[in-house]
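Tokens help. Consider this.
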Amino acid sequence: MDYEIMMNGNVKIGMYAPDFDAQTTMGNLSLSNYKGKWVILFSHPGDFTPVCTTEIITFARANKLFEEKDACLIGLSVDSNSSHLAWLYDIYCKTGIRVPFPIIADRNGQIARKYGMISNDVSNTETVRNVYIIDPKGIIRAILIYPMEIGRCIPEILRLLEALQTADCAKGATAANWVPGQPVIVPIPKTFAELEQRNCEIEKNRNGMSWYLSFKEANCKELCDRKEEVKQISDVKENKDLKK
């Protein structure tokens, strides 16, 4: 994997996310420290820019929703840590919003180039708007890429995260325009006997179009329990903070 990343300057879905150590607005961090949690790693072109400012504010407002899904946000650009801090402080002074997640200062572009965040045909120095969804095992499960002039849709990132979690839990797939709470697609039968059984189930339950397209409810108790556990941990932390 390291050789392929070195040669292509990019990562792909299904790869283990390359580890890194970085300086951030919340101190030093290593990606490996996030094992066991979902990670949303995203890059932005630059501090003190209009589109990026709207994105950081929107990510900050949605942070609790990501935490409820056991996911951590990590931002990145090639700006310095001092620039990040000044930008976040300006946002706080103007809006009252504190950015509750770290932003990496990738001054030499080492992390950005390793992850393919810099498109040389657009800019040799600034990152485009990449999003990497990394699962608790450290595997890259989804990659979104937006151009510099287009802001990201944060609700879509949340939907994609929950779709991945639901598909994993229910051992299925999600249909076009799937939203949380909807049924998932049942895996395709692998034998003729399973095909015949699937057709019988569809005829009985009216839960599909044909043997290759049928649905089931995503009864993900484990996922719901995990979300409740995360919520309880968050509530305890907030109560402790209030008592300080």
About this structure: The first strand starts at residue 21 and ends at 24. DSSP finds seven helices and ten strands in the chain. The chain has a mean pLDDT of 88. The radius of gyration is 21 Å.
